[in-house]
Amino acid sequence: MSTTKKITLTEGWVIDLDYENKGVIEQWFQKGPSETSADVSVPGIIQQVYPGYHGVVWYWLRFTPAIAPEHGEKCSLYFGAVDYYAEVWLNGQYLGHHEGGETPFDFDCTESLEAESENLLAVRIINPTNDSIDGFVLKETPHYCKTIPYAVGAAYNQQYLESD
Prior knowledge:
This protein is mainly β. The chain has one helix spanning 28-31, and strands at 4-5, 14-17, 38-39, 55-63, 74-79, 81-82, 85-90, 93-99, 105-108, 119-127, 159-160. It has one domain (4-160): Galactose-binding domain-like (Jelly Rolls, Sandwich), CATH 2.60.120.260. The chain has one helix and eleven strands. The strands form three sheets. It has a six-stranded antiparallel beta sheet with strand order 3-2-4-10-7-8. It has a three-stranded mixed beta sheet with strand order 1-5-9, with no helix packed on it. 30% of the residues are buried. One of its GO terms (biological process) is carbohydrate metabolic process.
């Protein structure tokens, strides 16, 4: 029976907007943050850095793991929630995607993790708007109380990550 190593990844994140939805084509998952990227708290919400923004954003984290899997062990990245659609890359390798703004998910990163080197984790998020982004439209997605523009009782869209 294999075990899974837990790596905590809550410090050092940066975020940037992808107004033109060109980050995948331009391979931002390999390039990492730019000079326009801003520090961001994780867990947290996009609007803490970019008030009122909804659309496509990228989160990046450069980290060297404090622990690494030994023979037969696995590493998994655990996300508490990402609102609403997330795609995840580690060191340029696509780990997967998840749809659903209030549900946790994880990806096995054993093969992509570089144990004693700096790693680049990239997370592309579609935070739906009233206009279609890659087929996602806010009014067509399951959500609790989110509206654009904000209204009384509306919730902010949010993202947070832990590692498992």
